[in-house]
Design brief:
By secondary structure, this protein is of the alpha/beta class. Helix content is 49%, strand content 17%. The protein has a single domain (3-165), classed as Rossmann fold, CATH 3.40.50. A five-stranded parallel β-sheet has the order 3-2-1-4-5, with helices on both faces.
């Protein structure tokens, strides 16, 4: 059975770079993000550099917990080699002036989705030779005045991941 590396937030930045790097090593990938056109473009690019890699794209807004759980159900039909929780974004501005809807969406994605996916992965792959990689930020180890909620979310990612390791 083919084994896959799952990468969330794969449509750009670190996620897209990781996808290209793993494809260059001949890995099969499941790429997850909200932006279908960017994922398809990445899949096409990978087909040029690594034609033997199987690349599956899944369009999903992970800022909604019900979508995270539905996605995990879809992933059960694949054998996973690794999960890279990369999806996330920052919301910047003074705490009292932030758009609360955007802040809530950021916390849902950066904290809740990552926690749910990590927990499901740990439950289902605990005794299998796999890897879980959670992407944090230097902001997870410092406080940036106009990014307090973002730094707090990345601090959670860092502490949660270190706790899982122990």
């Amino acid at each position: 059975m083919k084994k896959y590396i799952v990468i969330t937030g794969a449509s750009s930045g670190i996620g897209a770079a990781a996808a290209k790097a793993f494809a260059g090593r001949g890995e099969n990938l499941i790429l997850i993000a909200r932006r279908a056109e960017l994922l398809q473009s990445l899949k096409d690019e990978i087909a040029q550099i690594a034609p033997k890699s199987d690349v599956v794209i899944k369009i999903c807004d992970l800022a909604r917990s019900e979508n995270v759980l539905a996605l995990w159900d879809e992933l059960k039909s694949y054998e996973l080699k690794a999960l890279i929780n990369n999806a996330g974004f920052g919301d910047y501005g003074a705490v009292g002036e932030q758009n609360l809807d955007k802040t809530e969406q950021m916390l849902q994605l950066n904290v809740v989705a990552l926690t749910l996916l990590s927990s499901l992965f740990a439950r289902d792959y605990r005794y299998k030779p796999t890897q879980l990689i959670n992407i944090s930020s230097a902001g997870g180890y410092s406080i940036v005045p106009n990014a307090v909620a973002y730094c707090a979310s990345k601090f959670f990612v860092s502490v949660f991941t270190e706790g899982l390791h122990r």
